[in-house]
Amino acid sequence: MSSLSVCMIVKNEEKTLEKSIDSIKNIVDQIVIVDTGSTDKTIDIAKNYTSEIYNFKWIDDFSAAQNFALQFSTCDFNMKWDADFVLSPESKTKLKKLKDSNFKNNNLIALNWFFDYGTSNKSKSIIRPLIFKTKDFYYKYPVHEIINPKEGIVKKYNIFTDICVYHMKETAKIKLRENQNKIIIEDDIKNNPDDPQSYFSYGGELLHDKKYIQAIEVFEKYIFITKKIKNDEKRMIVVEKLLRCYLALKKLKEADDRAELYFKEYKKYPRFLLIYADIKALTDIKKAEEIYNLYFKIKFDISNATGSFDPERYHVHPLVMMGKILMLKNNNQEAKSFFQKALNKTRIEKTKQEILSLLRKI
Question: For position 339, which CATH number holds?
Answer without folding.
Answer: 1.25.40.10
